[in-house]
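Service request form, structural biology core

Requester: graduate student, group of Dr. S.
Request type: structure prediction, single chain
Budget code: on file
Notes: please return the result as structure tokens.

Sequence provided:
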Amino acid sequence: MTDQKKNSLSTDERYMLRCLEIAKNGLGTTAPNPMVGAVIVHNGKIIGEGYTSPFGGPHAEVNAIDSVDDTSLLSKACLYVTLEPCSHYGKTPPCADLIVKHKIPRVVIGLQDPHEKVAGKGIEKLLQANCEVVTDVLEENCAAHHKRFLTFHLKKRPFIILKWAQTSDGFIAPSKERRAANPEPYWITTVASRQWVHKWRSEEQGILVGTTTVLEDNPRLDVRSWTGKSPVRIVIDTSLKITNDYNVLDGSQKTIVFTRKTDTPADTASIRYEVLRSENIAQEICDALYRLQLQSIIIEGGTQTLQSFIDANLWDEARVFTGQISFENGVLAPVIKGRILSQQTIENDQLTVLKND
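Core staff response, request fulfilled:
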């Protein structure tokens, strides 16, 4: 946001913008809870801030209230929060009850919570306690920030990010002949771009690939070049061709294998098998991941897997690297149409981010 736009914001919008800034600190750790930001203001001064703790810990409102040195000021303060305070007991007590307990007289909310256990009930509790409630402040910004949480609860599927790297002439992988002659890894992008990918992995709950990617590249699908938790590995292996000597079945992190085989190996503590029964594999996988409470996934290939989700219109963002090298022939990159959100250069690579409108 430019300085000119910031200067045109109202007071409520300025504090909501701050809520959004600190809420990003919860990226990759709060799911299935939303990554909320909260700010407490008294007489034009911020006296408390907080964001959602890793899942199982306190919510943003609790952390913001706990950060206030003089709690007597709460009864004369305003609480800003990116998402409607919860009204039900989960891992923690309702945030709406805590706000009422401290008699905070005014609450400004960026976005109403679509979760069926909240969905206006938090606002209703506050109103019943004679709290002034202002809603829909920077609503579009808050919706963009909470895109994973909203997609999961409104569309009943994970937020889906497609990621691939393509050569300057539009190939995602070399030909089988070229790979057979030289089986070494073919890096299309720079080290810096690959580090970005590991950062992205740390931010999402799952990472999905197809059988060919595993058989040809033997990826680990973990977070190495960044700090953070490795996502759940999700592998499409319809015929169970992947053997236990591949990295994805090493048991080092939780893994879900989707297959059409009904005689699957027994599930273990780290590996789970899900049987596909319909022709629309992409939709069936989305349904299963929703049932398994995965709010976001990043799909890293290959072309057939990526294209199946594109053709089913089951994607939200695509992050496409274009490198400087060329293959002249090989596996063509997926075909996709979307609105360009951003374009930037990372060393010698071009990163284009598309949104599915």
